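Quick start: read one record
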Amino acid sequence: MKETYRDEWRVMVTLKPRRPADLGLTGLDDLAEFVAVAEPITVAVLPRRLGSLGFVSASDSLVSRDVEGDYRRRCEEIAAELRHRPQVDEVTVACTETHTCSHCRLRWEVLTAEEAADTGCRQDEHSVEGEPVCCRKAIDEYRAERGIPLLDEGVVAYRNPDRLGVLLCREHGEAWAGLVPLTSDELPDGGICTHGDPANPSDQCGRDVLLVEAGEQE
């Protein structure tokens, strides 16, 4: 699932100075009538930190249960104060949005239409435009919501083609590139996951891949 975080709140103000005083050039009323500005001036007005309490400073989360909402409201108050001023032409409240995956916390990125059609970019033949690319859980969640076959649907284990004695269950094998996916039909006698330290049996996974698959289906 995509999560959105908003920070760096600011009020963008576009100014069209008409008098010297609009730019802080006071004391010139008897000598000047206006300020010549070729283009409007846009400045960013930053809200005071929520945790700035005069002589005491604290983290925003300590003084607010809704940091995002409080910053938005503070910026809206600033915008309302500025809009009625004659030198102000436009006021907008802005922030920086960061999109992350709720599963892996990596930046949220999705396949474009071109990438979904490119076998070198897509996960499999069922990949579609808009599908996340950060982690398997995000992809499976996206596909489940849309009725798209999940990645390696029916796969119960992975075989290392260069080391035939290595068999990994889905949990330990799905993140490794170059492994051969196996279905239950290809493992009629089952198999034990060999993930771990070969010299230390207690450090090996040891799960029967078919039993793990049956448990997941339940």
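Residues 45 and 64 are 21 Å apart (CA to CA).
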